[in-house]
Design a protein that fits this description.
Blueprint (H helix, E strand, L loop, with lengths): L21 H8 L50 E2 L25 E5 L2 E5 L31 E4 L4 E7 L8 E5 L4 E3 L20 E3 L5 E3 L7 H4 L6 E3 L4 E3 L12 E2 L3 E3 L5 E4 L10 E4 L3 E3 L2 E3 L18 E6 L5 E8 L2 E9 L3 E7 L5 E7 L1
């Protein structure tokens, strides 16, 4: 079995011991199967309707897990509708609402027919806590700026041939949250629901093999910051992604298979939901292309170290930043505590690993 070696992907390289249908197993076992990661190599294509049972935590300042208590989001049933028939509809964006709430860390400016969005890819809320299937990656700031910035069409248009995230786009991002954090396909690079198999934290994210933090489900917690009238994210085709209600606060209307519909303003938009596909279910709008199973172009990430290996039986229990540039991740394994501490400078990242057995190792990498 071969795995993609693209820096946006995740190091989910697990031996597959079973040949049962993964979707059926997930439906039967629910979240209890999260840590097993027994997916088949060839992704199955059927859609999922399992509701998120865990909480997606509200946004908060980076701090120890004990200070980031979250409230449960009400489960929203995703309705499926036929595709919008008016494929000639064109949305003209004069601004990009939502990003303005994060202006101190996310920069948006116009460049020709596109909006350029710059960020370091790290959210203000805590990260990693709650992951039960961990590949030993940790959050590092990315350089999404200049020629490596995110690009969104100013005038998104519905495509005659949309691209489904059920059968493709398993690599790279498919959307960008308004806090500057990329959003990947709800299905990981094996075709499994990343949430259901325990790979995501309480905020719906985790780190890829470049130590790049990103979401795999809708960051619905951002609605508490931007409000219902503003998007929580934008798909890479340029169409806005709103939370669990319509922009006017009314009940969410019927959605098509891409998790979107035409709004009362005549413009197509997506919604974040608590059931699959959680976020935009593909590219309903026109994109410039798909290269290597990802939307192209988009920013790249550069790993500073080899991708981590799965740490069986580990659960991340705490993540904190004691000082600027210093981070600590705690995890539990076999009833004992392990620790990853790292210090980030402009030129290097220094790690200290303390295993649950007490063994200490150090590593240092140039950025």
């Amino acid at each position: 079995m071969q795995f993609h070696e693209h820096p946006h992907e995740h190091p989910h390289h697990h031996p597959h011991q079973y040949v049962i249908d993964r979707r059926s197993a997930l439906r039967l076992g629910g979240l209890g199967l999260g840590g097993l990661l027994l997916a088949a190599c060839t992704p199955t294509r059927s859609a999922m309707s399992t509701s998120i049972a865990d909480s997606i935590a509200s946004s908060s300042t980076l701090a120890p897990a004990s200070t980031t208590a979250s409230s449960l989001l009400a489960t929203t049933t995703t309705s499926q509708a036929e595709h919008a028939t008016t494929t000639s509809t064109i949305a003209t964006l004069n601004t990009l609402p939502g990003f303005d709430e994060f202006a101190s860390t996310v920069k948006v400016f116009a460049s020709g027919d596109y909006w350029q969005i710059e960020s370091n890819g790290l959210p203000a809320h805590n990260m990693m806590v709650g992951i039960t299937s961990w590949q030993q990656q940790v959050p590092l700031a990315m350089t999404y700026q200049g020629s490596n910035a995110w690009q969104l069409p100013k005038r998104p248009a519905l495509a005659d041939n949309p691209v489904s995230a059920k059968t493709s786009l398993y690599r790279g991002a498919i959307a960008l949250a308004v806090n500057g954090v990329p959003i990947f396909n709800a299905l990981n690079n094996r075709g499994d629901d990343a949430f259901l198999v325990g790979e995501l934290d309480k905020w719906g994210g985790h780190c890829g093999r470049a130590d790049d933090y990103h979401y795999h489900v809708a960051p619905l917690h951002l609605s508490t910051i931007v409000g219902t009238a503003k998007p929580i994210a934008y798909a890479l085709d340029g169409f806005a992604i709103y939370g669990s209600t319509e922009p006017d606060g009314s009940t969410m209307k019927k959605l098509d298979e891409y998790n979107g519909h035409i709004g009362t303003d005549g413009v197509y938009h997506y919604h974040g939901t608590t059931t699959y596909p959680y976020i935009n279910g593909g590219m309903r709008g026109v994109i410039r292309g798909v290269v290597g199973d990802q939307v192209d172009p988009q920013p790249s990430t550069k790993p500073i170290r080899e991708a981590g290996a799965p740490l069986q039986g580990a659960t991340i229990t705490n993540f904190s930043s004691p000082k600027t540039g210093q981070y600590a991740l705690e995890y539990s394994q076999s009833g004992k505590t392990g620790l990853v501490e790292y210090t980030v400078s402009d030129t290097s990242v220094a790690f200290t690993f303390t295993s649950p057995t007490g063994a200490v190792t150090t590593e240092k990498y140039t950025r």
